[in-house]
Specification:
single chain, 220 residues, alpha+beta, 2 domains, 3-stranded antiparallel β-sheet, 7 helices, 6 strands
Length: 220
């Protein structure tokens, strides 16, 4: 079976029952790969189609992800929520060549499943069309997590859970976060030290008899 990045495989594996419009959540619970199902553990997959060509491959829905932490949920922002609402309405009335993939979000205009290789291909064309440097689709995930790590509104535990990593060291090592964490640590220390420094400065001023706004001056 070809090695394909889990990011794309999980996107293709999203079915409409994993899109919770009421709570604005997308649940990641399965993935789609192409290859030979015979090498997979029994009871962890379902063959849902076949890719033709010189070397035929099965389209496989994997119900067991890489790790337990890979099973997670993401909040939908307004743009994604509205897009998926519109997409679902369009798919409900579309004329399909097959109903085999009617439960899947990622299908084309005739209801055929969009395969992982196709996403990689069209992502490259999108970069070319907009004169952007070539990067792998998976690099979008790296960028996202790096931006989160630079944002002090999120804890490293939250970022680890978002990334679907079983432990913090994976997040730390894979995304090369030492410099980011160093900046965050300096920020945390500065925030923690600020009241202490202010209190010390006030005491020093009081000892020197310097008037402090809102408080009388005392001379020891």
């Amino acid at each position: 079976m070809s090695i394909q990045k889990a990011t794309i495989l999980c996107i293709v594996g999203i079915t409409w029952d994993n899109v919770d419009f009421e709570n604005r959540l997308i649940h990641i619970r399965q993935s789609v790969v192409t290859g030979d199902s015979s090498i997979l553990p029994k009871g962890t997959y379902k063959v849902i189609g076949e890719v033709g060509g010189r070397r035929k491959r099965e389209i496989i829905l994997k119900t067991m992800l890489k790790t337990d932490s890979s099973v997670r949920s993401f909040t939908m922002n307004d743009a994604l929520y509205n897009y998926l609402k519109t997409l679902k309405a369009e798919q409900e009335v579309m004329i399909r060549e097959t109903n085999a993939y009617k439960d899947f979000v990622c299908v084309n205009a005739v209801g055929t499943l969009i395969l992982p290789d196709s996403i990689t291909h069209y992502f490259t064309k999108l970069l070319d069309k907009n004169d952007l440097p070539h990067i792998k689709f998976h690099a979008l995930r790296h960028s996202c997590i790096s931006l989160l790590a630079n944002n002090t509104a999120f804890t490293m535990k939250q970022i680890q859970d978002y990334a679907g990593h079983g432990d913090f060291l994976t997040t730390f090592n894979v995304y090369s976060l030492p410099m980011i964490l160093q900046r965050r640590l300096k920020w945390t220390i500065s925030q923690a030290a600020s009241p202490i420094c202010s209190a010390t400065a006030m005491k020093n001023k009081q000892r020197a008899g310097v008037p402090i706004s809102g408080a009388p001056a005392f001379v020891n």
